[in-house]
Design goal:
Elements (H helix, E strand, L loop, with lengths): L17 H12 L4 H22 L2
């Protein structure tokens, strides 16, 4: 099986943009507004979807 495939049995967290980890920490700390978090989350989802499209998912 090619190494660049994600099995349907995959469990866990998929790759996310490096800078989004800091956003998650800010969410836990309460130092980011819901609106700002929503924008950052949407940007991260766009990034992940683009990466998936690049690999043919």
């Amino acid at each position: 099986m090619p190494a660049n495939r994600i099995l349907t049995t995959h469990v866990g967290s998929l790759v996310r943009p490096d800078d989004f980890t800091a956003v998650l920490h800010r969410k836990v700390e309460g130092t980011i507004s819901e609106q700002e978090f929503g924008v950052e989350l949407a940007n991260a989802v766009d990034w992940v979807v683009a990466k998936q499209a690049e690999t043919g998912i």
